Amino acid sequence: MAAKQVCHLIWFRNDLRVTDNKALSSACADPQAKVIALFTATPQQWQSHDVSARQITFLHQNLVALQHSLAQLGIPLVCHTSASFTEAAQWVLDYASEQQADALFFNRQYEINEKQRDEWLVKQSHALHIHAFDDALLLAPGTVSNQKGEMYQVYTPFRRAFTSQLVVTDCRSLTVPEKRGKALEINETQPLFAHAAADISPQFVAGEQAALQQLRQFCRERVQNYQRDRDIPSVNGTSQLSPYLAIGVLSPRQCFNRLHAENPQALDSPDSGAFTWLNELIWREFYSHLLVAFPRLCRHQPFIEWTQHIQWNNSPDDFNAWKNGQTGYPIVDAAMRQLNETGWMHNRLRMIVASFLVKDLLIDWRKGEKYFMGQLIDGTLAANNGGWQWSASTGVDASPWFRIFNPTTQGTKFDPQGTFIRHWLPELMSVPDKYIHTPHEWADSNHIQLNYPTPIVDHKQARLNTLEAFEAGKRNSLKLSSP
Ligand code: FAD
């Protein structure tokens, strides 16, 4: 009797690529094994995590590209839709048993529900061998700690420890696994999973080839000027790779290695654009390590506990004005329109609009965090929560609560001629440069009727109100905690 062929399953999650994928490479290490790829769509769970329609569409597009790449390698992709993560894990186990699979390979995810799903799966797996890998980050969570063996709560010492560890870690990217048998044909009549297709901005072309090309071009042509250009939203100064990193079409090792190949001195030159870009990749790691060390962040609780006692403003009108880019502060409104239209927003602008929502409108940062997730093509719990808590001064290594961005000054500094503003707010096209950040002043003095709102808050007064609300929150927390 012929021996049964070994069967390996590779469960793809947020790692939609064939290059530099630890779980896939391991599943394919035995050339005799039959390899089957799995993907589970979980629409209800995604909805409860506020995943945007854009990200789901982009994920689907990239899954189709992955299916093609796998087919070239002779690996079929089986896609299943389940309501929740637990049901998805149950389906994977049932499928494994149906196929008499010997082993299941996957790359770990670090958010709380995803971790619970995998723990549950491991407990139920019995004879099925589970091979789990840390693949989504340059260094696995928990491996960068201070002298007490604890996670850092401040970024700069984390970065120092991180970079010293990075240089002694093998971060080489893995190549595409060998072809196993004939290329497979794909029947493309049906979507891989049902979803309401959203529009994706043309700059985000699906597939790892597009992502790699964008990475190469950025590291070769633009990273040198990153330090100079990264804060200017009208300049194409950043990589715009976040949508690919968010769903793993690209790995951080690929980013690091390409950066290093094009800029070998990056780690030794802290003033270079290359080092500055690496620094941003390390922020990404920092926020993910934090999620694992402090799971309450996954539950949207503030890191700084006394900030729970701040009395937020619940005005739906203010929140709607912010969401719709109708606050009367041009830099805020232009940024929100960029988000609403493309699902992506420049980092400087994310900081400005987040600060405006929390510290000018005094609206709970969690509302902004949720709204962002529902719009972003690159939404990730770690970076989004980290960015919001940083801006709201409620998080680890947050900006101090009494530091409040002035939205007009921010606009003047980072979009001096209003190039970005005019692109997204055509109604301000004719406003002279001098008034582009305060168009109502120009309109009033010239008796012009602008189709644009006057500021919904007075920044000076809003700042004072916010300082008072934060101070009161701190006082209340002290009162409640004193015996
Ligand atoms: P680049 O400047 O080219 O940076 C390269 C990569 O580094 C990015 O693609 C991203 O993966 C990572 N990165 C850069 N800056 C940060 C940062 N501050 N924190 C963590 N990672 C970073 N980033 C997300 O990927 N998803 C989010 O949901 C998200 N939400 C945010 C919310 C707020 C309020 C703020 C202030 C920031 C948020 N960021 C988020 C971080 C940052 O704004 C984006 O990563 C960046 O704008 C993406 O553009 P890029 O790819 O051109 O970045």
Describe this structure in words.
- This protein is α/β, with parallel strands linked by helices and 483 residues long.
- 48% of the residues lie in helices and 6% in strands.
- The chain folds into 3 domains: 129 residues, Rossmann fold, CATH 3.40.50.620; 124 residues, Serine Threonine Protein Phosphatase 5, Tetratricopeptide repeat, CATH 1.25.40.80; 177 residues, Orthogonal Bundle (DNA Cyclobutane Dipyrimidine Photolyase, subunit A, domain 3), CATH 1.10.579.10.
- It has a 5-stranded parallel β-sheet.
- β1, α1 and β2 form a beta-alpha-beta unit.
- α4 runs parallel beside α5, α13 crosses α14 and α15 packs antiparallel against α16.
- The chain is globular and about 90 Å long.
- The mean pLDDT is 96.
- Flavin-adenine dinucleotide binds next to α9, α11, α14 and α16.
Notable features of this structure?
alpha/beta, 483 residues, 3 domains, DNA Cyclobutane Dipyrimidine Photolyase, subunit A, domain 3, Serine Threonine Protein Phosphatase 5, Tetratricopeptide repeat, 5-stranded parallel beta sheet, binds flavin-adenine dinucleotide, Rossmann fold
